[in-house]
Specification:
By secondary structure, this protein is α/β, with parallel strands linked by helices. It has three domains: 87 residues, Sandwich (Immunoglobulin-like); 345 residues, Alpha-Beta Barrel (TIM Barrel), CATH 3.20.20.80; 111 residues, Immunoglobulin-like, CATH 2.60.40. 22% of the residues lie in helices and 22% in strands.
């Protein structure tokens, strides 16, 4: 489909079942629709070979439907001209140096979500580009993240966008640098052992500047034509632009696109935007009146195809309705996703840390957030305290929510890093959002780039995040339990606002990990008793109150950075110890 370079020219093929006539126009024929008509094939396909055409030339299809003639961009266009907004014949000559990356086991993944256009400022205050993300790969390596999730980068209408208003799903956004720059970024990331996960949008197209709309002139009820539902199922929160998941050619189009990113750009996973509006016409959870079986079967098919052709790649659903069927195997009737964004974690954690009064913080909400899982599998969920959705649409970054007047104050720093500490110590696949790790404030906007000066201002906070990420991945070799599925919340104190939990993979020294989180402004000297799963010395591997993270932190800790257990039963355990707790602090312990 689309424009394919062959030995004797370029083959053009397009699906336009209701067209009376189709021709291809472009630079190669002076945009003359009479010179290169396409021949009708079976099933609404049209094709021809143009010997004069060559890569780099712009083109479009000229379509006649009844008494109307109009031009459309190629639905399979691999590039869109930056200024003319026409399709471009594209031939890939990129030679990959690191095409394959063995994705880290999902229990060892730490994801960093970013928006290319705001991650940096481009030349002349233009949107950021892939090349600028590539320059920051050493930063990601230093921070310890091993997967980058890119918000959508298929072509969208304007220069600035979140990327969820896709118009040409096979073409890379030219304002970001285009196809070659994206491949260079992915290749360089793979060389550093960093995976690339890409957001894709199949719940709607457009809505503006959309050539797919009434593509060949046909429609019913004034709706979108061959690529869309033409009845009540067309409705989405973004317009009447839901793809027709029941039409074979549209299903093939979406399947081709999903596999295209995995094959041509070697991405290591896909994150599907708003799957609830693929499986249900109104975004409801398992409502028979509005369920969309075509959408559910499409999700199953896409995951089966990805698993068959690209085993080991990760697929993630953004569904947010805590429906475990999203991550059940397709053979059991599930949608077959590897993992899903987890609202059961982010909402209670954010609500707890932004709450102004200690007495209103619910430890039971925190406990449920820590223990929650899908289908008994801790790593079927992506957990986070900030994402592009959670810091926009009427919400802001956590420091901004805590103190709108001073996002750098003590409490904003303390409680936002406490939330991050939970993200990186709770069972699940943790995710950070761009700039979170150096206390970016405000809310996410596609016209406001990250202020990288904050990295210098809050270098201690950045060190805190780095230490947490390294501990989460067991890069120091003594917190293996943070990669394990097991968790036991053995200490729960709603009066003093303390929660403690035991994490382990197999158990034993350098594996068993104890996490203690205090949600109170009170400092507790070494008089607070906590149960421990094993006797002996427990070394404090992390204390969020360390002055190295911020000079006004209290450095509340225990002598010599360790505690020694006593044979005093506590929290249902035979061993316990007295420990000091910092205000709004998180402490991680393990044994040698």
């Amino acid at each position: 489909m689309g424009a394919t370079c062959e030995p004797f020219g370029v083959r053009f093929r397009v699906w336009a079942p209701f067209a009376n006539k189709v021709s291809v126009v472009g630079e190669f024929n002076d945009w003359d629709g009479s010179r290169h008509p396409l021949l009708a094939e079976a099933d609404g396909l049209w094709t021809t070979v143009v010997s004069e055409a060559h890569p780099g030339q712009p083109y479009q299809f000229e379509i006649t439907h009844q008494d109307q003639t109009f031009r459309r961009n190629d639905p399979y266009a691999l590039a869109i001209h930056l200024h003319q907004k026409t399709s471009v014949i594209f031939q890939d000559d990129y030679v990959w140096k690191h095409p394959q990356l063995t994705l880290s086991p999902w229990n060892e993944l730490v994801i960093y979500e970013l928006h290319v256009g705001t991650f940096a400022t481009g030349p002349d205050n233009a949107p950021g580009q892939f090349a600028q993300v590539q320059k920051r790969l050493p930063y990601f390596k230093h921070l310890g993240v091993n997967a980058i999730e890119l918000m959508p980068l298929a072509e969208f209408p304007s220069e600035r966008s979140w990327g969820y208003n896709v118009t040409n799903p096979f073409a890379v956004e030219e304002s970001y640098g285009g196809a070659r720059a994206l491949k260079e970024l992915i290749d360089a990331a793979h060389a550093e052992g960093i995976a690339i996960i890409l957001d894709v949008v199949y719940n709607h197209f457009g809505p503006s500047d959309l050539d797919l709309w009434q593509f060949d002139g046909w429609n019913e009820n004034g709706k979108g034509g061959i690529y869309f539902y033409n009845d009540h199922r067309s409705w989405t929160p973004w317009g009447d632009n839901r793809p027709d998941y029941g039409r074979g050619e549209v299903r093939q189009y979406l399947r081709d696109n999903a596999l295209f990113w995995l094959e041509e750009y070697k991405v290591d996973g896909l994150r599907f935007d708003s799957t609830l509006f693929i499986r249900n016409t109104r975004g409801h959870n398992s409502n028979p009146e509005t369920d969309l079986p075509d959408g559910w079967s499409l999700l199953q098919w896409l995951n089966e195809e990805i698993t068959r052709h690209f085993p080991g790649r990760i697929t993630i659903a953004e569904d947010l309705l805590q429906n475990e069927w999203l991550t059940k195997p397709t053979g059991a009737g599930g949608a077959g996703f590897s993992a899903q964004w987890d609202s059961a974690f982010v909402h209670p954690v954010r609500a707890t840390v932004v709450q102004a009064n200690d007495e209103d913080r619910s430890m039971s909400d925190i406990a449920r957030a820590i223990e929650f899982r899908y289908n008994g599998d801790a790593f079927q969920r992506i957990i986070y305290s900030e994402s592009h959705d959670e810091v926009a649409n009427g919400k802001a970054r956590i420091p901004q929510e805590i103190n709108p007047d001073n996002t750098a104050d003590y409490f904003a720093r303390k409680r936002s890093t406490l939330a991050a500490g939970l993200v990186l110590t709770t069972p699940g696949i943790p995710m950070l959002f761009e700039g979170q790790e150096f206390l970016t404030d405000g809310w996410f906007r596609d016209d406001l780039a990250l202020d990288w000066n904050k990295l210098g201002t809050f270098k201690g906070i950045n060190r805190l995040y780095r230490d947490l990420v390294h501990l989460r991945r067991n890069l120091y070799g003594h917190t293996r339990g943070l990669t394990g599925p097991h968790v036991h919340i053995h200490h729960y104190n709603d009066a003093d606002k303390v929660v403690a939990f035991h994490r382990w993979l197999e158990g034993g020294p350098k594996d068993d990990v104890l996490v203690i989180a205090s949600f109170s402004h009170q400092t507790v000297d070494a008089t607070y008793r906590i149960g421990l799963p094993r006797p002996g010395d427990w070394i404090i591997r992390f204390n969020s109150d360390w002055k190295g993270y911020s000079p006004d932190f209290s450095d509340v800790t225990n002598p010599e950075g360790r505690i020694i257990t006593e044979a005093t039963a506590c929290d249902g355990m035979e061993q316990s110890a007295m420990i000091a707790l910092p205000p709004y602090g998180l402490v991680i312990l393990s044994q040698e």
